[in-house]
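job 3f2a | input accepted
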Amino acid sequence: MLTPPAESSGTQHPGPPDGARPVVIVPPGRWSLPRFGQLWESREVFLRFGARDLTLRYRQTALGIIWVVLQPLLTAGVFTLVFGSVAKLPHGTVPYFLLSYAGMLAWNVFSGIVSRGTGSLVTNASLVSKVYFPRVLVPLSTAYAVVVDFAIALVLMAVLLAGYGVNPGWAVLALPVWVVLLVLLASGVTVITAGLTVRYRDMQYIVPFVLQLLLYASPIAYSPAAVPARYHLLFDLNPLAWILQEFRWSLIRQPLPPAWQLAASAAVSVGVFVGGMFVFERMERGFADVI
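job 3f2a | predicted structure (291 res):
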C-alpha cells in the first residue's frame, strides 16, 4: 500500500513549469556587444518608445504632421535664396531648390536621430533606473519617428521632381540602401552621445553646437562642385558628405560617387554602429549609479 506524503504546514510556492528555464540577469561585460536575441525579444519596447515619441512631438500642435514637410521646405527655400541667388554658387543643371531639399532630407535623418537620442536616457531616467530592459533601445528608438518623418517628406520630394520635370531613373531604387547606411551612422553616434549624457550633462549643449557646425561643413546647402579644390580633402574625409552625394545621385541625377566612396560609406556606417554598441555596453554598467 502506498502511503500519502505528509502535508506541509507552510505555504508552497510552485516552481517554474516543466522545461522552463529561469531568467538570469547578469551585468554586461566590459567589452561585449548587446545580446541581439534579447534585443529582438524586447522589440516591443523599441516600437512603444518610437510611437510615443512620434505622438508626443505633434500632440497639441496646430499644424501637426505638416511640420514634417514645412521645416525642410522653408530651410531649402532660405538656402536657395542665400546660396543660389545671392552667393550664386554653381549647381549644374539641377534647380537649386531641388539640390537643397534633397540635402535636407538626408540631413534631417542624421540630425533628427542624434539630437533626439542624445538626451533620451536622461529623459527616461525613472525607467532606466527602476525597470530592466535593454537600455540601448531607448536611443535607438528615436530612429522610428525620424524614418516616419522622412517617408512623409519624401512624398513631397516626389511631387517636386514631377513639378520640375526631373526623372531620377533607376538610381532611385538604391535610395533605401543610403537611408539604412545613414540610420546606422546616426544610431552609432547617438548611442555614444546618449551614454555620455548620462554622466556628463554638457553633451546636451555640445551636440547641438556640433550639429550646427556640421550642417555648414557638409555639402547640404550647396553642391560639392562649389567647394574649392584646396578643401576637397576635408570633404573626402566626411562620411556624411559621401552619403549626401549618394542621396542626390538617387534623387536628382547627380554624378555617381566614386567606387571607393560607395564602399567606404558602407564600411564606416556599419563600423560606427558596431563600435557605438560596444561603447554603450561598457558605459551601461554604471548608468543606475549616476542617472
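job 3f2a | The chain is about 65% helix and 0% strand.
job 3f2a | closed
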